[in-house]
Amino acid sequence: MKAVNADFLADLGRLALFAGLPADELQAIVERCDEASFGAGEWVIREGDDGSAVYVIIDGEVAVVIDHEDRRLLSKGAFFGEVSVLLDEPASASIVTRTPLRCLVVPGEEFGPFLLAHPQVMYRVLKAEARRLATATAWPT
Q: What is the dotted CATH code of the domain comprising 6-135?
């Protein structure tokens, strides 16, 4: 069993993706995942990299960079890397930290089983993806 910091579990439970999950389920999530930290200005993923993991932001902010242009900022509670992992394709965007970053990392090969083991989280991931798609395809007014 992986030793888990109680503060990390509490931080995780405050994120919308994991809100309301029982402590034992949060514990199970953390045991299957890793925690990672990056300094400001570091590349987490580079466009074209093979999909290796899904990152859930615990603290900090990152920019989504496509063709050398910042397209979106993601902060606490957001996640990235899922498209590459789910489609088993190279990353379609780069991710660079704008502030120090602390995140939960779900290894790519674990993401499918992770979602199946936590259906409430899977539902929230699907809703977030639908929201991103709706925003990306919204007609200008």
A: 2.60.120.10
